[in-house]
Amino acid sequence: MTLEEFEERLRDGDRWVELIDGRFSRLDPPDDMHGDIVRNLSLALAAYLKRSTDTTATFELPLIVRHNPATVRCPAVSCFRTEPGGRFAETDRVLTGTRPVLTIEIASNNDRREAMSERIRNYLDWGVAAVWVIDPVSRHVHQFHGQIAGQQLKEPQVLLGHPVLPGFAIPVSDLFRQPGWATQ
Questions:
Q1: pLDDT for 80-100, tens place per residue?
Q2: What is the 3 state secondary structure string of 144-168?
Q3: Is the pTM of this model over 0.90?
Q4: Are 10 and 64 in contact, with CB atoms under 8 Å apart?
Q5: 3-183 sits in which CATH class?
């Protein structure tokens, strides 16, 4: 499949899909824990982005990590550096070839977990400065910065955004918090 054909599928509303070495791939839909983690990250990132004028975040934006053969990955969250006046440029795209400074993956189901090392390698080889993998099963966060070996964080540690999101911090336990309305 070409990038153009893949983009057309996205425009037609296809979700949870990727293009791996030119082959179309469908991921299982995210589960409730995946959604809780994204919600918790969204709250923390929103507070951070109010203070940071040079960064923006997108959710489930497909990233063209390689052109030949075409590979498109769709992380849960991507954070981009922005130029003045262009803060929301990436949010209007169906897919992008712009390299984020950070991708955040959630290892929430088997197909996402099984391909995680390849996904991380795709981002780092493309030049993404940092990759975070949030694992709801082990309740850990794995951080990768460039080609440096990953660091594992667990409760009660705090996930710090330095150097890609200076000043960002969230306790690891807050990532896995269930929303109040879900327990009522």
A1: 998 655 666 677 789 999 999
A2: EECCEEEEEEECCCEEECCCCCCCC
A3: yes
A4: no
A5: alpha beta
